[in-house]
Design brief:
about 70 residues, mainly alpha, about 75% helix
């Protein structure tokens, strides 16, 4: 498998954002950031297409602001 540098950088970016979101969700006790952060950490392992990774990563990054819990 040939890996692209852009795919590697996007995976690193979304993994870092996911780790921060996971830590924030755990500290605040909110389930949506925990789930989105865990998904952001895991998803780059399974997607090898840059466009798909950007779309899924963008949607997961925006999920805590779209899905508000009280």
């Amino acid at each position: 498998m040939d890996i692209d540098g852009n795919l590697l950088m996007a995976s690193l970016l979304f993994g870092t954002v996911g780790m921060g979101m996971l830590m924030f969700g755990k500290k605040s006790g909110r389930m949506v950031p925990i789930a989105a952060g865990l998904a952001l950490v895991v998803v780059p392992y399974f997607l090898s297409n840059l466009i798909a990774l950007l779309l899924v990563g963008g949607a997961l990054s925006a999920a805590p602001w779209i899905v508000r819990e009280s």
